[in-house]
Every structure is written in structure tokens, then in C-alpha cells.
Specification:
The chain is an alpha/beta fold. The protein has 25 helices and 25 strands.
């Protein structure tokens, strides 16, 4: 295969109303080197299935997985696993912040992963492609880690000069929006911050390459590296004139220089550069640190075009600030939120209300801080633990870490805080929703703010008043809810006892959502630009509850009783086992008979023998359960696991009924264990796409037409014994009505044998 004709696949997540800028930069670097890259975005199981089919049908030389964080890594890694099982023989590499920090764990956990790119991936990925096409090993490539080690140091000194190769752009108010990076890095070293850990490693990489620390500092390595203003302005001008972009979102940690004189000079030169390039009206969104923005800087930035800013409050108390290396906000920082609002700039702030060292007192002071937020909206969150950070190491040494690098959790010393954390999670998941009412309020504010910037004469001032009332009410509801949650936790209540609080909050949130929907309708956008919407809500968010087995066997169950099932129970802990780089996650233990891949397998199945074993097992499975869809492993003894990848929306299988019990499928295969292995020495495993998959695909396709704005309440579609829709419980009225209409006359008999329970996914 010639270099010019080489096909390469780049895989990553792209949330609704967002871009994946990292894949854009990689695609641009590959194109400049003469290679053709195809991008595959995997936000759900349906997109994963499409990507698997496309890559398998036309196998590229290299597959690159974008792993920015643990949450976004799940589906790309699942695709890598599926490609391996389907026989893909090309080179698979991974890159991104998470991949760099957890590279040893990834390479040990996934034997099919050939390499990991450290830090900026544009140059190393091109070299991986060249070597792969030439049949050469990538070991020793600068910036590339394999099982032999880190190889040559990465080039951390050369600044990025490429522009990203962009595909489809999101829209807001009928105009295009685009993400831009004007800088890389951050001067902060917060203990919980993944980028801070990455920047520390980047400096060490430079030192390993023999570079002086002074040279690294001058170049911004381990700190902030800024592009030239002319380069940023050229990119904005091209997007404004040629792509119709009117909203530019800068993904920088802190876009401006830290000191006021430098920041004002930067904004002055930026404004002049854009004027010379004849840009008309536009809006800018970005992230800023409140302690680094003065009133003068705020006024100058608003004059340039700032309409939206994410302001991190982060921590509430001086004690927390000292522990985690981030100063808590003072009254001057809070006042900035009001000043920005007066300038027409909408703000959203976050406060990590729950952290590993929280006490009832710090939580109470955090709630008090939220109550003092004068303008804009806020979201309270739980501090996440990212692999490779100082917080990760501290909790690991203390024996308080649970989970693995993809998703860590931690224990609390105070049971009162543990109970509050349970209630807090339930409120966010079941009362405020994943695409929260606060974020939806902020997105509506953003639409109005940008509309005023682009065409002020078309914005009714009464809309601003209505959204401001909704904003104030949202903030009051949040503060009151968290205070009541803390009181409940202090009195001994936990997850289960929070049910009345959740029920009391839902009507209040529903009224605010209804008002926001009316405002959005007046803005003329049925589905407004919503960059805060989480991955879980980019598809239909509801529950398929096939309750026929229960209802056929006994009396009817009221909808309210249906809602109070296992989905209401606290999630089981991730387990006592803590995964460091050298250990194996507990979920890998589901394949106890996996061979040691460090030595050559002794008895590999021939293609003919494998096909015979698979077809023989398929006949048994289909005779036992025609609905079964999932995976079968022909170990000793054989086993099966249930899975329906075509179900839309977040969910997990639970309370499997008699007919689709995977244990019964495994028992039916007794005596059919394979005496040979896969080519990598693992147990012979294959997928089964039964009638359950067909039913799930049909249901997903039908209800996808009923998606609504925001994170609506969970919908339960109850089927009778023949798989016909008996009733639709929950959801918004228009959504339930639509689902009844699109499912009328359809039957899903195989969905009557299990239930899909909601999986609470909170994007921090």
C-alpha cells in the first residue's frame, strides 16, 4: 500500500454541539504527511457498531484511539476490543491526556494495544504510520511507549503550527460554532488536576531529552504555550468568512495572560488583528480564573466579543484550598460574576461540594458560598480522581481508592459525608438530571447573549427578564435542596430516605424546564445549542421496561411502584481492589480461563475448526433461547453474557428473566468446551446476534424520533406477554405521546424477558 493511499482510522468521542479538536489536529497532521484519515465518533453503542463495521469492511493500516479522560475512553477501548476479536491485524495506538498518564495500565490491560503516544500526538502518529506501512517496529519512536518502555523522549519543545482539519460544525441560532485552541497548558498545579499532572511529566520528558530547565521554562513547557495572535486571528477569519462561524469557543484552561497589563495588551492587539481581517459580529466563549480577571480586563474582553465564560469556583474553604493547591474564591471573585452579567456576559461556575476530605462543616460552608453567587448559574459537583495526579497517589497510599483508572471512587472517613454523597448523587441524577436544569438555563442565557451580539434588534428584552427569573429560581432550588440533603444525612438518612426529597423537587424543576422551553421556542430554535449536554443525553434517554413476566404472573403493578425498583438502589461499590499500573481490574476476571499471552499459545484453532465449533454452539444457543443476544465463551465450563448493543440511551441489563438467563445458555453448552484457543491464546469467544438484538434495534430506531430537549425523566415502556406496548410511564407528556404513536402496532416479544434499568451518568 502506498503512503498516499493509506487509510487510517481515528476514533474518539464527540458530544452533541461540540467538536473533537484533538482528532482534528491529528487528521491535519496526517493529511500534511500525505496520509488519508477517516474519523469515527463513538458516543453510544449504535455508533460503536457502525464504526466496527466500517473499519472491519475496509481495514486501515493504523487505528488511533483518542483517550482524553477515563469517561471518554470507554467506547474507543470497547471498539479496540471488538476489532481484536474480529481479527483486525493492523497497528492500534492510543493517545490523549488519559492515555499518557495511564499508559502502563492500558498496555498491560489490553494485549491488542500496540502503542501509546505521549503528550502531543501529531508528530509521533505520523511516524507510527510510516513505520507500520514499511513493516518496521515502532519501538524506540520518539514520544511513543510500547511494552518495551517509553522509547526516545517526546519532542516537547516544537510549538504546534497546524490548524485542525474540521468536519461538521455545530450550530447556534442558525450560525456555525467552532472550537479553537489559542494556548496549551496551565500554570496551576492543583492536586486533583489531570492537566497539571501531565504538564509535570512534560517537563520531566524535556529534562530526559537533555534540555535545560531554563529553556523549557522560556518555551512554556510545563506551563502555558501561546500561539501568535496573528495565527489565532487568521484561523478565526477563515472560519468567519468561509464557514459562517459566529460563535468561537476557546478550549484554553485560561485564555488570557495572568497579569492585568499583559492581558489588556493581548486583548488590544487581538481586537486590532480581527479588525484588519474584517470580521463582522461574533461571540466568544471560554474559561477564565476569577482571581485573574480584573474589572478592566472584563470590560475589554466584553468589548472584543466575550458572551460566555466558565468561571471555576472549585473549592469553598481555605482549608480545602491549602490541601488541594487552589485558592478558594473571595468576595471580589464573586463580585466579578455580577460585573460580567452587567456587561452582557453569561457565566456558569462549578464548586466541588464533595471531596475525599469533606466534612459536614465544609459542605455547609460550600452551600453558603453557592447562596452568595450573585449572578449566573452554578453546578455543584463531586471531586473526581484522575490517574497520575497527586490526589490519586495520596488516596492510593492511604488505602482509600476504589475502582480503576477509567473511573476511580474513594471512601469517606465520616459516615455522615458518605450519606450526603449518596443523596447528592441521587439529586443530580433523578431531580436535576444529567443535562441539568442549571446547565439548560445557562445554555438559554448563552443563546440570548449571542443573539444580542449578532442581532440585538430581534431580542425581546422580556426574554432576558424571564430567563433571569428562571436563573434565580434554579439557584434557590439548588441551595435549598443541598441544605435539606445535608440535614437528612446528619439525621441518619441516606440514598433510600432521599426519595421524598426527590419527589418534592421534580415539580419545581419541571416548572422551570417548562418556562425554559417556552423561551427557547421564542428564540426560534427547537433544539438550542447546548454544549453542556452530556454524552448520555445525545440519544434518547429512557428505559425499556419489559414487565410482562411480572404482570402475567401476578396482579398489575402501579406506575409508581414500577419506578421503585433496583434502579433506585445505590450502586454497588466498585470493589475493594484498587488498580495501580501493575494490577488487573476486577472486570477482567470474567474471563478466568484466559491464557497467559506472554508465551505462544500451544493449541490454536484452525479457521475451519473454529467455524465448526462456533456453528455447533450457535445451534445449541438458538435452540435454547432464540432471543439471546450477547457473547459466548467456550471455556471449561462454557459461559454466556447478555448484551444488546442497539438499545439507545444509557442503561444496564438487570433482573434477567428465566428465558434470557445467560447462565441457562451456558448450561446448555455443557460438554462443548473448545480444546483449542484463539490466535492470541485466549478462550474461543464469539458474539450471538439473536432476535433480542433485532427487537432492540427496531425499538431504538422507532423511539429515536421522540427525542426531546434536555434530560427528560426516565420513560418506562411496559409490554404485555406478546411484546405489545401496554402503557408508557413517565417522561414528558409530548415525549410519551410520541412514543405511543411510533410504537403503535409493533411487537417486541424478545424484550419481554429482561429489563433495562437506567444508568446514572454524570459528566463532571
Amino acid at each position: 500500500m502506498s503512503a498516499g493511499g493509506a487509510r487510517l482510522a481515528l476514533v474518539g468521542r464527540r458530544l452533541e454541539h461540540n467538536e473533537n479538536l484533538g482528532l482534528g489536529y491529528l487528521a491535519s497532521a496526517l493529511e500534511h504527511a500525505g496520509f488519508r484519515a477517516e474519523r469515527h465518533y463513538v458516543n453510544d453503542a449504535l455508533e460503536l457498531e457502525r464504526a466496527l463495521t466500517a473499519i472491519s469492511d475496509h481495514p486501515p493500516a493504523v487505528v488511533g484511539l483518542s483517550l482524553a479522560d477515563g469517561g471518554s475512553a470507554l467506547l474507543p477501548l470497547a471498539l479496540g476490543e471488538a476489532l481484536h476479536r474480529s481479527g483486525y491485524s493492523g497497528h492500534v495506538t492510543a493517545g490523549g491526556q488519559f492515555a499518557t498518564l495511564a499508559r502502563d495500565w492500558l498496555l498491560e490491560r489490553h494485549p491488542w494495544l500496540d502503542s501509546v503516544v505521549r503528550f502531543a500526538g501529531e508528530g509521533p502518529l505520523v511516524e507510527i504510520v510510516r513505520r507500520s506501512l514499511a513493516g518496521r517496529s515502532v519501538e524506540g519512536t520518539a514520544g511513543v511507549t510500547t511494552r518495551e518502555g517509553d522509547g526516545e523522549p517526546a519532542d516537547v519543545l516544537t510549538p504546534l503550527s497546524l490548524r485542525p482539519l474540521r468536519d461538521e460544525l455545530p450550530e447556534i441560532l442558525g450560525h456555525k460554532a467552532a472550537h479553537i485552541a489559542a494556548s496549551r497548558g496551565c500554570l496551576g498545579r492543583c492536586q486533583y488536576c489531570g492537566p497539571a499532572a501531565l504538564h509535570t511529566l512534560e517537563r520531566r520528558e524535556g529534562v530526559r531529552a537533555g534540555l535545560a530547565k531554563e529553556a523549557l521554562t522560556r518555551s512554556g513547557v510545563g506551563g502555558v504555550r501561546r500561539r501568535e495572535i496573528d495565527a489565532v486571528s487568521d484561523e478565526m477569519a477563515e472560519l468567519w468568512h468561509e464557514r459562517g462561524v459566529r460563535y468561537f469557543y476557546f478550549v484554553d484552561e485560561h485564555l488570557l495572560p495572568y497579569e492585568e497589563p499583559e492581558a489588556l495588551d493581548y486583548l488590544r492587539r487581538w481586537k486590532q488583528a480581527l479588525r484588519e481581517r474584517e470580521l463582522g459580529a461574533f461571540g466568544i466563549g471560554t474559561m477564565l480564573r476569577a482571581d485573574r480577571v480584573t474589572p478592566a480586563v472584563a470590560r475589554a474582553f466584553a468589548d472584543l466579543g466575550l458572551v460566555r465564560v466558565f468561571v471555576g469556583l472549585e473549592l469553598a474553604t481555605p482549608e480545602e484550598g491549602q490541601r488541594f493547591g487552589r485558592r478558594p474564591p473571595g468576595e471580589r471573585d464573586l463580585a466579578l460574576l455580577g460585573e460580567l452579567a452587567d456587561l452582557g456576559v453569561v457565566t456558569v461556575s462549578n464548586l466541588m461540594l464533595v471531596n475525599p476530605y469533606s466534612t459536614p462543616e465544609t459542605i455547609a460552608r460550600g452551600i453558603d458560598l453557592l447562596e452568595r453567587v450573585p449572578r449566573g448559574v452554578f453546578e455543584a459537583t463531586r471531586m473526581m480522581v484522575y490517574h497520575g495526579t497527586r490526589l490519586h497517589r495520596t488516596l492510593l497510599e492511604a488505602g482509600r481508592l476504589i475502582g480503576n483508572p477509567l473511573r476511580y471512587g474513594y471512601t469517606f472517613a465520616d459516615p455522615r459525608v458518605e450519606r450526603f454523597a449518596e443523596i447528592f448523587m441521587r439529586l443530580r441524577a433523578e431531580a436535576f438530571w444529567d443535562y441539568s436544569v442549571a446547565f439548560r438555563t445557562h445554555d438559554a442565557f448563552l443563546a440570548v447573549s449571542l443573539a444580542r451580539r449578532l442581532r440585538a434588534e430581534r431580542v425581546d428584552p422580556r426574554l432576558v427578564t424571564r430567563i433571569e427569573r428562571a436563573r434565580a429560581r434554579v439557584n434557590r432550588v439548588y441551595v435549598d435542596a443541598y441544605r435539606r440533603a445535608l440535614d437528612l444525612a446528619l439525621s441518619g438518612g441516606g440514598f433510600a430516605e432521599a426519595a421524598p426529597l426527590v419527589r418534592a423537587l421534580r415539580p419545581q424543576v419541571g416548572e422551570i424546564e417548562a418556562e425554559l422551553a417556552a423561551v427557547e421556542a421564542e428564540l426560534g430554535c427547537r433544539r438550542p445549542f447546548a454544549p453542556m449536554r452530556a454524552a448520555a443525553t445525545s440519544v434518547v434517554s429512557f428505559v425499556l421496561a419489559a414487565a410482562c413476566a411480572r404482570e402475567a404472573a401476578g396482579p398489575s403493578v402501579a406506575p409508581t411502584e414500577l419506578a421503585a425498583d433496583t434502579a433506585e438502589a445505590p450502586a454497588a461499590p466498585a470493589g475493594p481492589e484498587v488498580v495501580a499500573d501493575a494490577s488487573v481490574p476486577s472486570e477482567e476476571l470474567s474471563y478466568p480461563d484466559a491464557a497467559d499471552t506472554s508465551t505462544a499459545p500451544a493449541n490454536v484453532c484452525s479457521s475451519v475448526e473454529r467455524e465448526r465449533l462456533v456453528q455447533d454452539a450457535l445451534r445449541v444457543v438458538r435452540a435454547r433461547d432464540a432471543c439471546f443476544s450477547g457473547n459466548v465463551s467456550l471455556g471449561e465450563p462454557p459461559s454466556a453474557s447478555l448484551g444488546l448493543g442497539s438499545l439507545a440511551g444509557p442503561g444496564r441489563l438487570c433482573r434477567v428473566r428465566e428465558r434470557s438467563d445467560p447462565q441457562k445458555v451456558g448450561q446448555a453448552l455443557a460438554g462443548r468446551a473448545a480444546r483449542c484457543t484463539e490466535s492470541d491464546g485466549t478462550t474461543l469467544t464469539f458474539g450471538v446476534s439473536g432476535k433480542g438484538q433485532t427487537d432492540a434495534q427496531a425499538a431504538a430506531n422507532a423511539v429515536a424520533r421522540c427525542a426531546v430537549m434536555g434530560m427528560s425523566p426516565a420513560v418506562r415502556i411496559v409490554l404485555d406477554a406478546q411484546g405489545r406496548v401496554q402503557r408508557v410511564d413517565g417522561g414528558l407528556p409530548e415525549q410519551a405521546k410520541c412514543i405511543r404513536r411510533v410504537l403503535a402496532g409493533l411487537r417486541f416479544p424478545c424484550l419481554a424477558s429482561f429489563e433495562v434499568c437506567p444508568e446514572h451518568v454524570i459528566i463532571e
